[in-house]
Amino acid sequence: MSLTPRHALAAAVLACVVMAGCKKDEVDTTADTGITPPVASEPAPAPLPPADAPAPTATAALDVSSVTLGTAAGADLSITNPTSTFGVNDPIIVSVATNGAASNAEVTVRLKYQDGQQAGEESETITTTGAETTNFTFENANAWPAGSYTAEVWINGTQAETSTFTVR
Q1: Counts for the chain of helices (H) and strands (E), in that order
Q2: Are 119 and 103 in contact (CB under 8 A)?
Q3: Which among 11, 68, 115, 139 could bridge 95 via Cys, Cβ 3.0 to 4.6 Å?
Q4: CATH of domain 58-167
Q5: How far, in Å, CA of 142 to CA of 134, rounded?
């Protein structure tokens, strides 16, 4: 059986219709619709910090070697009369000895009253390549409430040491 040209044309059109139906989810990129298809873009680069922004904190290993409490410190920053008992009107000096190398390390001391209430907080940023002592002095315009306290020492947001003391 041989096909006439008209039958051959009808078969070709039918084949095109069937093929077009099978590919209905595909986008015809050859047709000019006037609409530009979306182009996959790369993620935008992270924004740069402002020129006057502080340098990011970079630290190496910085350890707390000791925490000493007292009411007075000498010229070398050492506590002259270490104590764990303070009077209600005494200044409370927390002397933090660190060792190691760090650049822009934040050392924070928090005083917590017996029920966990924060009684004070001070921070210093230090850069060191060895042993360093940093003192934090807490004074209260009113009398310190009598009771148990904890001095918490934090290095770059991580608790490093605690020391307990009493106010009488």
Answers
A1: 1, 7
A2: no
A3: 68
A4: 2.60.40.10
A5: 25
The pair of three-digit structure tokens given for residue 10, joined into one six-digit string: 């009808």
Task: Kindly give, in sequence order, each residue whose CB lies less than 8 Å from that of residue 114, ignoring residues fewer than 6 positions away.
Answer: 147, 148, 149
Put residue 104 in one of left, alpha, beta given phi > 0 → left and psi -120 to 50 → alpha. Answer: left
- For the segment 70-80, the average pLDDT, to the nearest whole number, is 96
In Å, the largest CA–CA distance within the chain is 118
The DSSP symbol for 157 reads: T
Say if strands 85-86 and 132-138 run parallel, antiparallel, or are unpaired.
unpaired
Kindly tell me if the per-residue pLDDT of 31 is higher than 80.
no
Q: What is the pTM of this model?
A: 0.65
Taking alpha carbons only, the member of 152, 106, 105 closest to residue 129 is 105
Please give the Cα distance from 154 to 124 (Å, whole number).
Answer: 11
* Total residue length of the chain: 168
Q: Where are the domains of the chain?
A: 58-167
Query: b or e along 103-120 (b: 16 or more beta carbons within 10 Å of the residue's beta carbon)?
Result: bebebbbbbbbeeeeebb
